């Protein structure tokens, strides 16, 4: 219509772009399966192409090599992880008793890792591309800061160094629990329960079972 900005390209160009985006997403989905099955070092572009049901030539139209695929997949998974983290560490959960708070925080994060085993492979693998591990390490610091905010509400009189020490320990326990769960795919529910038991028994003497008195003043995740 006159006076309105028209979309760039015609309908054919938009359809080709949409097909290209679907194909790229299909290749990333296939890469996630192959990385989870074989690890990053053991995966190859031919295996990814087979998993996607396309030729290697088609794959190379979208990604130059395996590293480029891993970087794009890592970015996608990290963005999804940020969403899961934001929901898990929401201020809405801070009024819960400690056991309920652990359920509300831990379960969504473990569910994400169970749905996306390639995430664990890419962010914890020693041979993963540096871009992926560097991005995760940056976000690891953001998560640590958010845990410190939550703990500070439970420990209003504690020194900052104590809050940081407890937060660092909690995050280390959680990360170790992820490794255990990943190593026992047939017993994930059992190790999930063990992880929450460990976190509860560590935190309960430090924080007590009662919710914090100032939960309503917590900042939003990422604030």
Description:
- The chain is mostly helical.
- It has 2 domains: 8-63, Homeodomain-like (Arc Repressor Mutant, subunit A, Orthogonal Bundle), CATH 1.10.10; 66-217, Tetracycline Repressor, domain 2 (Orthogonal Bundle).
- It is 74% helix and 0% strand.
- It is built from 9 helices and no strands.
- It has helices at 11-42, 45-52, 56-62, 66-88, 98-115, 117-124, 130-154, 160-183, 188-207.
- The chain is elongated, with a radius of gyration of 21 Å.
Q: What layout of secondary structure does this protein have?
A:
Layout: H1 11-42, H2 45-52, H3 56-62, H4 66-88, H5 98-115, H6 117-124, H7 130-154, H8 160-183, H9 188-207
GO molecular function: DNA-binding transcription factor activity; transcription cis-regulatory region binding
InterPro entries: Homeodomain-like_sf, HTH-type_TetR-like_transc_reg, HTH_TetR, TetR_C_15
Region (Disordered): 1-21
CATH topology type of the largest domain: Tetracycline Repressor, domain 2
- Low confidence ranges: 1-6, 215-223
Structural domains: how many: 2
Principal-axes geometry comes out as: elongated
Structural class: mainly alpha
Biggest pleated sheet: none
Supply the key terms.
single chain; mainly alpha; Arc Repressor Mutant, subunit A
Q: What's the quick description here?
A:
It is built from nine helices and no strands.
